[in-house]
Specification:
This protein has 267 residues and is an alpha/beta fold. It is built from 10 helices and 10 strands. The longest helix has 15 residues, at 6-20.
C-alpha cells in the first residue's frame, strides 16, 4: 500500500475542510491513508499527490463525492444518547394538534439512518395517527443509500426496546441472520436528503425539533458558528435543538436557552 507523506496529508486536510468544513487532526493520517488507498488503485495512480491533483482538476466528476464519502466518519447506533429521544416523545405529546400540521423533525447528521429511524419509532408510538415528518440528511451519498435501505447488523440495534423490535423491525433469517430490517411502513415515513451543512441550505420548511449530534466535534469554532446559525434559521420558535453530550454551544450561539445538558430551546 502507498504511504502518505505529511505534505500529502495536508492536502487532504484542506480538501475535506473546503468540501465539508471538517477539521482532520494529525491523528487521522492513518485513517486517510487507509480509506483512500483503494481509490489510488482504482484510478491507476501512483501517489496520494496524483489523486489530489485528480480531485482538484475539474475533471474528477463523481470521484470528488467518492472521496468526500470516504473521508467523513460515520458511526452511530439506535437509541444513542436516549435522553434526547425521551425529550422527543415529550415534545410530541405536548405539541398542540394543529389542524393537520405535522410535527417536523430533522436528523441533521443522520449517517446511515439509525438516528432518524429511532425518531420514527418514537413518534409512531407516541402520536398514533397524528401527522409527523422526519428528514435525515448527510453529506455522504454512500451512507444515505444505506440509510434508505434500513438494513443493519444486530450489534447496532441492542438498545432498541423489545416492544419496538417486535412492532417496527424484521429479524433476518438464513443468509440474513444477524441483521435487522426496519419495516417498510416506517421506512416510507422517513425522507433522506443529501445536505452539506457547511454550505447554503436548500429551502426547507421549519422544524419543531432538530438533532445536530456528534458532528460539531469535527468543525473548528468559526465553522461551528456558521453551521449552527444556518440550521437555527429552520427551527421554529419554541422548538428544541439537541447536540451530542460531548459537545457544547459555548461561544457558538446565544440564540438558544439551555433546558438540560445538551438540550436547548429557541425562544
Amino acid at each position: 500500500m502507498h504511504t502518505i507523506s505529511d505534505n500529502e496529508f495536508g492536502l487532504f486536510q484542506r480538501f475535506i475542510f473546503d468540501a465539508a468544513g471538517i477539521t482532520l487532526s494529525s491523528a487521522k493520517k492513518a485513517l486517510v491513508c487507509g480509506r483512500l488507498a483503494k481509490r489510488l488503485q482504482a484510478c491507476n495512480l501512483g501517489s496520494y499527490s496524483e489523486y489530489f491533483k485528480l480531485l482538484t482538476s475539474g475533471q474528477a466528476g463523481a470521484e470528488v463525492q467518492t472521496a468526500v464519502d470516504l473521508l467523513t466518519t460515520n458511526e452511530t447506533y439506535f437509541f444513542r444518547e436516549p435522553k434526547h429521544f425521551e425529550l422527543l416523545r415529550e415534545a410530541a405529546l405536548a405539541a398542540p394538534q394543529r389542524a393537520g400540521q405535522p410535527l417536523r423533525v430533522w436528523s441533521a447528521a443522520s449517517s446511515t439512518g439509525e438516528e432518524a429511524y429511532t425518531m420514527a419509532m418514537v413518534l409512531a408510538d407516541a402520536l398514533g395517527d397524528a401527522p409527523w415528518e422526519i428528514m435525515g440528511s448527510d453529506i455522504s451519498t454512500r451512507v444515505l443509500q444505506r440509510a434508505r435501505q434500513g438494513h443493519y447488523p444486530m450489534e447496532r440495534c441492542r438498545q432498541i426496546p423489545q416492544a419496538y423490535l417486535k412492532r417496527f423491525c424484521l429479524r433476518g433469517i438464513d443468509e440474513q441472520q444477524g441483521t435487522l430490517l426496519v419495516e417498510r411502513a416506517l421506512r416510507s415515513r422517513v425522507q433522506f436528503m443529501q445536505i452539506n451543512l457547511n454550505a447554503a441550505l436548500p429551502r426547507l420548511a421549519a422544524f419543531d425539533v432538530i438533532f445536530l449530534r456528534n458532528v460539531m466535534i469535527y468543525f473548528n469554532g468559526e465553522t461551528k458558528r456558521q453551521v449552527v446559525a444556518r440550521i437555527l434559521e429552520t427551527l421554529k420558535p419554541g422548538g428544541y435543538f439537541c447536540i451530542g453530550h460531548s459537545e457544547s454551544l459555548n461561544d457558538i450561539t446565544n440564540a438558544l436557552q439551555q433546558v438540560a445538558p445538551s438540550i436547548y430551546r429557541k425562544p
